[in-house]
Structure formats: C-alpha cells, structure tokens
Amino acid sequence: METSTISRRNFLKLSAMGGAMLSLGFYVPSAGKEATIVKTTEAEGFGVELNAWIHIDTSGKVTIFSHRAEMGQGVYQAIPQIIAEELEVNLDEVNIVFAKGDNKKYGNQVTGGSSSVRTTYKNLLKLSATAREMLIEAAANRWKVSRAECYAESGHIFHKPSKRKHHYGELVLDASNLQAPEQVTLKKRSEYKLIGKPLRRQDTRMKTNGTAIFGLDKEIPGMLYAVVERNPRLRGVVKSFDDSDALKVPGVKRVVKVRMGVFSTYREGVAVVADSVWQAMQGRKALRVTWDDTGFEHQNTELIFRRQADELKNNEGLSFKTQGDVNAILNSASNKIDVVYQTPYQQHACMEPVNCVAHWQGDKVEIWGPIQAPDWVQDYISKEMNLPRENVIVNMTFLGGGFGRKAFMDYPHEAAVISKMIGAPVQVVWTREDDMTQGPYRPGISYRCEGVVTDGEISAFKVKMAGQNNDHWRGGPKDKPNRSTSEGLLKPYFDSIQNLSIQDIPFETPIPTMWWRSVYASTNGFAYESFLDELAVAAGKDPLEFRRSYLKDERAQKLIDRMQEVSGWKKRKKGDGFGVAITECFNSTVGQVVKISKLPSGGMKIDHVWAVMDCGWYVNPDTIKAQVEGSIVMALGAATMHEIRFEDGLTVQKNFYAYPMPRIYDIPPIEVYIMENDADAGGVGEPGLPAFAPALTNAIFDLTGKRIRKLPFDLTTVSS
C-alpha cells in the first residue's frame, strides 16, 4: 500500500483519463448539523469544498482521503475499517491517502483531543452507505429489476433471483450519474462484519518493511539540509556569530541567522545549511554564537513552584465552577483536609525528533513533514510570510509520535524561513537535544485541595489550580479561567457534591507550554483522584464504593462493577496494596486498579494494572488495547522516572540519559477491558493515561500509609 498526497482536482483529472469514477463526499453546513452527502462533481455548487470523500474507480479500487494525521494512534486503520463496513468491501481493497492541509475543504484538521473517529464516524458511515446504495441502484437499473432484489457484498452487487453479479468498477459510470439518496439505512452493530473486530492494521506492513514515509524519510530534488543553533535560554537574541570555521567544514553551503515564530513571540537562531545532515551538524559544532538575554527572566524550577505555592495560599483565582457555600463550610470546619499536589513539567519526547521539509517558490511555499495541524500551519505561515493561504501547501507524512508537540507551528515556519533565505528546498532536522531543550512542554502545575467530610459524606470540596494556561500562548483571554480546569473529573460529581468550588489561578512564565497526551487531565487527574482517595479515607469508606456513591449514572455504575470484577477488588487481602482511580476526558471514561507489593530489597513493585475503558461506539478493540497500554507506559514514565527542570533559564535534561524512558522490564502486566454499550463514540488515544498515576499512588498509600502528593517519585525508594 503506497501512501501519497495529491489534490482532489488532479486526482479527478487523472482518474478521468483512466475511466469512470464514483466520487462522494460529505458537506457539513454548520456545527451540530447532520452532514449532507454529495457527489464531488456537485460540490462546487455548495460554495464550499468537501470534508471527506470516497473514490471508486473502474477496477473497483476504493480510495479514501484522510484529513487527519497518523502518529501511531490508529486512524490510518480506523477510517478504512469504518468505510469498508458500510460500503461492503474487503479491507485490503481500500487505499487511504493523506490529504493536503485545507480547512475550507476538510474543516478542522488538527489531530488532537482524540477526535479523529469520534467527530467523523457517523458521517463516514453515512457516506459509505450512500455509495453502496447508489451502486445497488445502478445495478438494478442495468438488470431492469427491483433494487430490493439486489444486495452488496465483497465489492460486488448481486441479484438474488438470477445470481448475476457486477463488481463495483463495472457500475461506477452508471452510479456517478445518479442522484445521491438523502436517507440511507445504516447497519445495526450486531450486523457489523468489520467494525468491532480486532483486524490487523493497514500500516503495520509499511512500517516494518520501510515503505512508510515519515518526515525524516522525505526527499525532494535539490534538497539541502539544515540544523539550527538556537538560544539555549528559550528567550533572547543573537548578538553576533562567527561562521568562519563552520564554512570550512566540507559540504557546508550557507550559515544564516533565522527568526522563527513561537506562538505570538519569536526565537532567534543561526542555521547551518549543508549537503547532508551530518555535515550540517559538524558545521554547527564549529559555529560560535554570542547571545543577548538582557531583560529576560532566567527561570528556575524551585522558584516556579514556590510562586505557585504562594498563589495558592494568597489568591482565590478565577471561578471555573462554584455551587453551594464551600468557603463558609471550610472556614468553620475543625476537621478540614488541606493539601497541595504538584505535577512537573514534561517533554513530549517523541521517538521521531522534530523535522520539516520546505520549498519556497517565490509566490508560494510547499511543506512536507510530521504535522498534526496542517490547517494551523497554513494560517500561521500565511500571516507571518505574507502569502495567500492557498499558496501555503502542507503535506502530511507519517508521524513517529506526536502527543501534541507536532501541532506546533514553530518548526514548519522555521523551515519555510530558511528555504526562502537560501533559495532552495531544505530539510531542517532537530537533534534530540534541540527537541528537549526548546520545548514546548506540558506545564508544571500545583493544586490546593480543601475538603470536609461530615458523617461519611463530602460536605465541601474545593480545588485551586495554579499553572500555565496553554490558551494564553494562542492569544486566549486572560480574564477567563482555564477552560480545562476540571478536565479529568467526572461530570456526575458536579451533580452529587452539593458544595463544590473549582478555581483557576492565572500563572505565567516565559516557558513555552502546549498540549501533552490527555492535556490537563494528565495533571488534574492526579490531584482530583488522589484527593478523592483522601476524602474516602477520612470517611472510613472503601475507595471504590466511595466513588460509586457519587457517580450515580448507569454507565459509571457498570464501569465500577467491571473494575471490581476483573481486578478481584472485593477479594483483596490484608497486606495487598490496591489503588483505584477513575478519570474522564474526550468523552471517554477509564477506571484503573493498580496492585503493588514491597520488594525485599526495598521500594515497590507494580504487580498488575487493570484498566476498564468506556469509549462508547468503537472500531477496533486491538487498537483500543494498544492505546491504553501505551498510555499507561507513558504515565508510568511521567509519574516515576522523568521530569523537565530549569536552572538559570536553561533546561537541565537534554537527552534520554537524564530523561529516562520506561524499559520493557519496567512494564507490569496490563489487562485492558472495553465496555459495550450504544453510546456515541469517545476518544481512545489519550483517555487511558490520567488514571494511572493516582491509582498507583493510592495503592502505595493503601500498602504503606504514605501519601505521595508530588510527582515524579522514585518507585524503587518508596518505603513505609
């Protein structure tokens, strides 16, 4: 299966040369309204381009254009699996092609928020069912029979009485001349042949035989290579540089000063351009740059968290959610729980470092790379480089991990600037040290949690959050609370806890921050679910049953039942260390139970992890299990192994020797279970992460009586 990018218009022109084609897409008139299915030849009449479409050529080959990036989360498999189900074709007959960036055509193309399936699956089902029905009608017309006597299966239309059949390719010309039906009947889930089945991923073979094109694999004629020496203190300007030795390195062509955008700010650097990455790197080593950091605060981790602690103590913040009279109860209580939780800055640490290819061509620029947000890149470069938006052409490759980092616009902008300056196509490659030290990072956050338990029930629940708001980097309002202040906390708590307050304290530093897998749920979840555990202990109640009493909706109750069943929660023995946490993000809920034990040599060992996901309608159970397992591994590293720290404005951790990743021998047995129900689809790629850290630390408390409120911690040194 070859992955390539080609414009819809050119695709149709090329296809017309080779034969007829049925092309369908869906037009979404406005947010919240059902999509209208149209043939692509009709699309121009709507005054907008299409959001997604199917092509079927005369050979019967089905091509699907994907407007979202594939970074390991499985959308490359999920989208064809959805289409093939209602279209009644074999999955190996479906080809998926990465679409170019164009939000007028596709709408939002940002691959984030675990949204690729949950926001499009209904339209994709309708789209493919519409194509199927048009092919059935075309066959019935050709045979002059009732369409009720015809059915679709394995890329063919069959006539039941006569046993005649046509493959789709024989019918596309007739079908392309039909009007798309306004209503189609979709299958019941019990009728699915592909959806819900653990089918092999379509991109596995490509990624193992080397044919999958990642950003670093991309080559275009005449391409040069560049690495950039950037200010190591995140802010500042180039005072001067000496490139005399750098230009003596064989293969080095140019050394130029560059200025790249970092949201609404800028970062300066000096680029070394050469015939190969290695030559550029050697030239960079010979380069001498003097930086001017005058007027910029040199950040220090201890100072950052000290400032947050002061804010939590002295500042009430902005109200995200307030109900009842929380402060009155807290002020009069003699048994108030008042604790602080802290989560560190984290790096995305994708296995594929940042890279990008750009080719400036006078009045336009074309970009190729591992990009999560092609439409954002178009918007940003168009504005920064004074180009018409349609002249910023963005092509997506496979991503070797993203986690939010590759939805940033800095590295495509930098590549475009360098290409323009040198008058040639260029691939800009970031080293691991560049990636680690330049950010953006998951923000470090502190939480003050206050609560009162009366007669075994929560009578007051208050959380204040102090940490950087990612929206502020994008120009969001600073007088409004962080819209993700409660992310991770299940919504039923708002109905069942009468006196509740959630506050956001605005907090800023010059450190660039951005989304990290599961975004604020990854930090909020630790604070909220650890604090709920403390309240359960104060109430003298079983931690899981305590949560059950406040999560009264049917789905949550069934999820808790399943958690108890698979983990043996009710059969746990004295001396076992069991911890539990339940979090929600992107319309999916995940409950996790962690079992730990003491090591004879000291420290703790994770014996087992049970995870139960309720993501509603889903496509491939193997993909779900892989994503939850990967989320738990990532959460394990963030909770117990690594963090980003700053000293004198410099990032301390520069590579994996100081920012260690979990190894295979660190990973405990993990069991993943999926809830079955008829609810709408939720996210999958991120919701499996937030519950792990609090479930782990709650298990440590259960076993040792020691409450861990600061991450990361060393699992091997924890003791009673």
Automatic annotation (TrEMBL):
Single GO term (MF): oxidoreductase activity
Name of one Pfam family that matches: TAT_signal
Domain Aldehyde oxidase/xanthine dehydrogenase a/b hammerhead: 209-295
Superkingdom of origin organism: Bacteria
Entry-linked Gene3D superfamilies: Aldehyde oxidase/xanthine dehydrogenase, a/b hammerhead, Aldehyde oxidase/xanthine dehydrogenase, molybdopterin binding domain
PANTHER family: ALDEHYDE DEHYDROGENASE
Descriptive protein name: Molybdopterin-dependent oxidoreductase
Organism: Dawidia cretensis
